[in-house]
Amino acid sequence: MQLLKSGADDLRIPLDSEQIEQFRAYAALLDEWNQKMNLTAIADSEGVQRKHFLDCLAGLPLVAEEYGSSMPPTRALACVDIGTGAGFPGLPLKIVWPNLKLTLVDGTAKKIRFLNEVVGALGLDNVTLIQGRAEELGRKRRFRGQFDLVTARAVARLNTLTEYVMPFVRQGGLALLYKGPNAAEEFMEARKAIELLGGETVRFSPVVVPSLNEERRILLVKKLRKTPKQYPRQQGLPRKDPL
Ligand code: SAH
To answer: Is 0.85 surpassed by the pTM of this model?
Structure first.
């Protein structure tokens, strides 16, 4: 986990030996399960440290800044990761901020089975796993407007993704969306959706992922107003006919 350690140092994210051990166990399970099923395209140790762990952690300083730079924020934040797949970015965030109250959402049962095993093996508490579609869960009372922080990485284009995530954010809360190099165009397309859904862009920033020479951008949206009741629209529409 040498890459992870030095990268976390660069990001000024302190990791103790227990956290390093949790990342190591997570990487081992990813590798093991990936041999049986297609969980993630990247499962080699170096790739996992760079393109999963450090990539996910690179978003944290932006959130911490919004909360007055304390890492982790002193208040236990309620966070949901939408389309988490093999747990990204939700689980790396949880490992470094153990006081997070984390919900992981994915549409696929096998991802949820994997996550269940990881959560048990790492001894993480306050993690809830939900199999379901964002468009449906975002209309339910238990989830709508309930989260301080909503994250998503590699799930959909921004105009679709904002319709998935904004309903979950509480007023005053944040959406933290991880994007690659072509995000500028996507962002232009999504500006109307952000406004319609009650959000305001706080930052759309390039981020440097330690030991990864690829462009990354993070969109941070604050929810100012309630999301109108008609959103999210029914399953499939946010993707087929984006706002
Ligand atoms: N966030 C992870 C996984 C990305 S792959 C990562 O960065 O590695 C996209 C994942 O989103 C898949 O696991 C897929 O099942 C899930 N997904 C896509 N659309 C979804 C939706 N509308 N509701 C819930 N999950 C969704």
So the answer is: yes
